[in-house]
Amino acid sequence: MSIRVEHVSKTFSAYPALNDVSLEIANGEFVALLGPSGSGKTTLLRILAGLEVPEEGKIRFGERDVTRDQPASRGIGFVFQHYALFGHMTVAQNIAFGLNVMKRSQRPSRKLTRDRVEELLVLVQLPGLGKRYPNQLSGGQRQRVALARALAREPRILLLDEPFGALDAKVRRELRVALREIHNELGLTSIFVTHDHEEAFGLADRVAILNQGSIEQFAGPEEIASQPASPFIRSFLS
Ligand SMILES: Nc1ncnc2c1ncn2[C@@H]1O[C@H](COP(=O)(O)OP(=O)(O)OP(=O)(O)O)[C@@H](O)[C@H]1O
Ligand SMILES: [Mg+2]
Predict the structure, then answer these.
(1) What distance in Å separates the CA atoms of residue 197 and residue 201, rounded to the nearest whole number?
(2) Which DSSP letter does residue 107 get?
(3) Would you say the CB of residue 41 lies under 6 angstroms from ligand 1?
(4) CATH of the domain at 188
(5) Which residue's CA is the closest to the ligand 1 atom numbered 11?
(6) Distance 155 CA to ligand 2 centre (A)
(7) pLDDT at 140 exceeding the cut of 90
(8) Are 97 and 138 in a shared domain?
(9) Per DSSP, which regions of the chain are E strands?
(10) Is residue 80 part of a domain?
(11) Could you tell me which of 53, 114, 213, 219 has the fewest CB atoms within 10 Å of its CB?
């Protein structure tokens, strides 16, 4: 599903967190949002998820204006670094959560839900771990479960805010590869927030670089590396 951000501005008590941001992302693209701390990455992702409403501008998914739609009706999945798993639920219950809270008339049967959970566990390479509790998993395994939970309702758009931020470098690299494979296999459109250049450039089709609430450059990794659009980008990448 394509995504259009049109002239979006967001202010927190007179502080401009986003300033006239526009972005067009094609169906199937994997985009990284890269920028220093406080540049507005999380704010933009939360606006896309429907957790914040911008003062100015519009968000479109395909042709649909979703600017004021509730998160649950947007057809998105999200994984946030601090959006933890429910500790009192098993892995399978965590993954099924989004299905089990659906209205009775739309909710899949228990058998379908069980099958879907098994399928998702295979997808994130954790088959057979459905009965464990989150505290019986490694950090990397937990983030795989969080990803499976985000995918349970078959979103067309996946939003990720530093999902691997707390993990060590080797596990990060493994998860990055797994995520990119899942993105391709499911035909998702994904936006991945990071402040790690290597992660952004190694993973994304295009990288949007934010600085002080504005997009300074939005281009493929090679183009940004060979033709940085501003002195800020040159120094940020060096
Ligand atoms: N709820 C809020 N109330 C007040 N100010 C906020 C709020 N959320 C964000 N801000 C401010 O908006 C600016 C952008 O914040 P944001 O969280 O989007 O940055 P970020 O790029 O995600 O940074 P980081 O890399 O540290 O996560 C920051 O200056 C932040 O202090
Ligand atoms: Mg952030």
Answers:
(1) 6
(2) P
(3) yes
(4) 3.40.50.300
(5) 17
(6) 22
(7) yes
(8) yes
(9) 3-12, 15-25, 30-34, 56-61, 64-65, 76-80, 157-161, 189-194, 206-211, 214-219
(10) no
(11) 53
